[in-house]
Every structure is written in structure tokens, then in C-alpha cells.
Amino acid sequence: MSHVSTPTLQDCKSCGGGAPIDVHFCPQCTKILSLGRHGDFFSFLGLARKLHVDPEDLERRFRSLSRQFHPDFFYNAAPAERRASLERSSYLNDAYRAIKNPVTRLEYLLQLEGLAARGPQEASKQVPAALLEEVFALNEELDDVRERRANGAPAEEWGAQLERARQPIEAKRVEHEQDVASLSARWDDLIDRGAPDDERRDVLTALHDRVLERNYINNLLAGIERELST
């Protein structure tokens, strides 16, 4: 499996020494390092590239790093250090937001592994094969609802029809969330075991497909909500 290539060392602008890519302070001079070269959100937070994250541990890491990078501590420091504290504080906030949320965490992992998931707008352009039957049935129901509404049918009638049409789509959403949870657990196990790339790629591809389908399902449910509110 091909991974995004990243450098393994970063340069300290204060002393010129080299430091591992994901440390925040120079081992030689202890100055805060510029963000110029870094790894990814997971490694920045000191986490393995896994999909299960302990919320309390994540919160502790975030608060600890926030204190270390806070610009107030670098008020009298050299300009390069003040800039570095701002850069790392900003990146830390981005990393925390992405990793805290399970949905964005998965999307970010897929991006790192070269399988970026398509967003909701792009996901709506093509019906996933696994959803063809449900989409066909839903479109028939929507056409019927629009016709009945145009003919003056009372809202409680076509509203009830829409609610019934929602049920199989909602069931698919629940099924996909379960699939994502199962595949995520498999991914974490593969990371723990140091599994070969081909095994990891299979799970990532399955996760990518489930995310695409989930985005499409969410679009369908949003469309039903729009019809109900019309």
C-alpha cells in the first residue's frame, strides 16, 4: 500500500540542529520548532493512526499541548519562536477538531492513506450500487408524493407516505454505521498487529466505499426532510 511520503526530520531554526519530525521542541536547544515540516494530525497529537480514540486521552493531550504552545508563553521570545507558537497552536486546533469527531477522523485517515472520501455534493452525483434498489423505490415514492401534493392531497396523507419512505433508507443508514464500526475495529487491529499493506488496503477500500454510501444515504434523508418541510 502506498503511503503519502513525509520527511523524517525537521530543522531547528534556532540552533540548526535536526529533530524527529513529530517532536515540538528542539532536543538540542529546547526551542519551539517551526511547523514547516511535520507529519499528520495523529502523530502531531502523539496518537497511532487508529480509528478508535479515547476521548479523555485526546482531551488531555490537547490541553497539555495547548499549554505548551500558548502564545502568551512566547511573548518575549524571538520572532521565529512567537511565529512557531502561533503556527503550532493553530495546527493543534485543526488536529483536535478533525480527530475528535469520528466522521472527520475517518475521512482524514482515508485522505492520509490516499483514499480521500468524496464529500456530500460529489457523493450525490452517482448512485452507489448497494443502494440502487432503495433509491429507485424512494424516487417513485417522491414522484407520487409530489403528484398527490399538487392535486391538493392533505399534508397528513403525503407526510405519512414520506415517513414510510424514510424507513428503509434509515435502516440502510443504521446498517452502514454498523459496517463502519466493524471495519474500523478491524483497521485498528491491523495497525496493532503491524499487518501487511494488502490487508490494510482491503479494509481501507471497504471503509471508503461505506463512507461514499453513507454520504449518499445522508443526502437522501436530507431530501426527504426538505419534502416534509415544503
Walk me through the structure:
The protein has helices spanning 41-44, 55-69, 79-100, 102-112, 120-123, 132-150, 155-193, 197-229, and strands at 9-11, 18-20. The protein has two domains: 9-112, DnaJ domain (Helix Hairpins), CATH 1.10.287.110; 120-229. Mean pLDDT is 87; it is low at 1-5. It is built from eight helices and two strands; from the N terminus they run E-E-H-H-H-H-H-H-H-H. Strands 1-2 form a two-stranded antiparallel ribbon. Strand 1 and strand 2 (18-20) form a beta hairpin.
Summarize the structure.
By secondary structure, the protein is mostly helical. Helices cover 64% and strands 3% of the residues.
SSE layout and pairing:
Layout (H helix, E strand, L loop, with lengths): L8 E3 L6 E3 L20 H4 L10 H15 L9 H22 L1 H11 L7 H4 L8 H19 L4 H39 L3 H33 L1
Antiparallel strand pairs: 1-2
Number-wise, the strands total: 2
Strand order in space, largest sheet: 1-2
C-alpha termini separation: 48 Å
Class based on secondary structure composition and strand pairing: mainly alpha
Uncertain spans: 1-5
Which properties best describe this structure?
230 residues; mainly alpha; Helix Hairpins; two-stranded antiparallel sheet; 2 strands
